[in-house]
Every structure is written in C-alpha cells, then in structure tokens.
Amino acid sequence: MSAGALSQDIGTPAWQKELSRGFRHPRDLLAALGLSERWLTAAQSGHEDFPMRVPRGFVARMRRGDPHDPLLRQVLPLAEEQDSHFQFSQDPVGDLPAMTAPGVLHKYHGRVLLITTGACAINCRYCFRRHYPYGDAHAARQQWVPALSYIRDHPDITEVILSGGDPLTLPDHRLAALAEQLQRIPHLQRLRVHSRLPVVLPQRVNTALLDWLTGSRLQPVLVLHANHANELDEQVHHACRRLRDAGVMLLNQTVLLRDINDSVAAQTALSERLFTIGVLPYYLHQLDRVAGAAHYLVREEDARALAATLTERLPGYLVPRLAREDPGAPAKTPLSTSLHG
Ligand SMILES: *Cc1c(COP(=O)(O)O)cnc(C)c1O
Ligand code: SF4
Fold it and tell me: Does the reported pTM lie above 0.70?
C-alpha cells in the first residue's frame, strides 16, 4: 500500500464511511424492515428510473413492519411512480432557463443559488432532482470559476445559497476553499446552505464543517430539510446543537406530502420538535409538479386549509410559510390562508 493510499484511508471522515454503507437496493431495505416481498416488483421499476438510496441511520428511525411509515414512504419507490400525469414535467420549476452561468441560478433579487453537486445522501422519490441533467449543470466542474465571476460582477447579490443535489456531500476541503473565495467578494453578507444531511446523516456535522461554515466573515444560515418529526432523533438534535453553539442560524423547509405529513397532527408535531432541537420552521412547500411524483400531491385547497389550522394552533414563529414555486416568478409564491374566526 502506498503512503498516499494509507493517509487517504486514515483521512476518510466517519460520515463518508456511513454514507457508503447506506441501503442501495429495495430488497435490502424491505428485508431490514421485515416487510413483504410484494412491494418489491414496483420498487424495482422505480429504482431503475431513479435509484433508491437511503442511509442506515435514517432507516433506523422507521417503524419495522409498517409499509405506511412516513419516512419509508419518502424513499421506497411505489407503483404509482409509473403513472403519467400531463401536468407533471421534467423541469417543473424552470431551472434550466434560469441558469445564468454554469451551476448558477439567479431567479430572485439579491441572492443566487449555486448548484455545487448533483449528489445526495438520500434519494427522495418526490424530488425534482430525479430528472435533472446535473452532469452538465453543476458549478464545481469548473472549479466554480465562472460562478464566482458572475457573483463578482453583480454587486446587488448579498447572499449565496449552496444547493444541489446536496452541497454537504462534498468534502470539507472543497467547501472550505469555496467559502474562502466567497468571503473575498465584498458585497456578499451571508452564506446559506440548503441540506438534508444534518437530518439524514447527522455524523456529517463535524468539526471540519463547522470550521468553514463559521470561519469566514459571512453570516452562516443552514436550511435543513425535514418532513416529519420522526426524522428528528437525538443524533439530529446533537448535530443541531453543535451548529447552533457555533453560531449558525437554523431553519427548516418541508415538502407537503400526501399521506406522509399532510395532517394537523403531523405538522404540529414537526414544528414543535424542530423548536425543541433549536430550528425554526421556514417554508412548507407545495410539491413541485415533477413527473413520477403525482401521488404525493396535496390539493391546493387542502394545503391552504391545513395552513389555516396551523396558524390557529401554533405560535406565529412555529408556523411555516406555505408556498409554491412558479416558473418565472420573482420569489416563492405564498399561498394565502383565510382564517375561520
Ligand atoms: C428557492 C430559491 C431561492 C431562495 O428563496 P428564499 O425565499 O430566499 O428562501 C433562491 N434562489 C433560487 C433559484 C431558488 O429556487
Ligand atoms: S435534493 Fe433534497 S429532496 Fe431532492 S433527493 Fe436530494 S435530499 Fe432529497
């Protein structure tokens, strides 16, 4: 073994080992949960389209023997994925026309979104990412050079959002190098990261991550992505505490999903659990109309009624904003809710 290979092995962070141990076949997942093989045929065809992928720690939070478990339903391909619906398309939010430089999405005033990678730790069945041509579109391929020069040339940009895929699947030395380049751009004030990793693989929140995220002059914001209170176990709590202690503002966005979190009970429990672990609810997104995900859609009037009830039941700071993404719009579109009174 060469010295290089040896030091590389010693240097593999624990979270990367955990990531590589994740479930990658529906058969293994069903077996681990004690579920019948009758789900396998459907799962197999979805898996061929968009591979199933889920970390073991996330599976450990699922109920054994329950095919309707709200965490399982987010990752197990169902037969309904094969149905086609005319309103559900490959690029439902108009990302491709909004790309201003390789991997840069500049849709809204003052902030740009950087697509840093196409990779994720988990493949969520409802995600628009299932059809996205990341091969050509992410910014890291060119060392972020065109992306950084685009940001430098636009002094009205004050915030950069690292997104993907999941930016935290990248190694810390690369993210540290990017943060260093960004902090040198004088008009930037905030560095925002959108990631599902602190939830699905909380080991990802390590010292190296905290160092680059909080080590620059940019104010750090991390938007988590949790859809259900059961996702937020003690390990996630620990990861969030470390982030908060280091000075990171923590917010959460949720996708509203039929039969997973579209009830008052599920949403109230989620908001309360988020607050317990130091996170404020930010957005409750109406599903993007992506092909293969129609069975997750909650009707808009039902979504509005749910949001109205949450507004009546929870303190204002625990009510997420119900919103939808419309192609070409200048911001996420808020969906208004009229109270009963
Ligand atoms: C959602 C999104 C943002 C962030 O919007 P906020 O309302 O600031 O959270 C920024 N840019 C793009 C391209 C987006 O899709
Ligand atoms: S981008 Fe987010 S929602 Fe989509 S697969 Fe990755 S982690 Fe899941």
Answer: yes
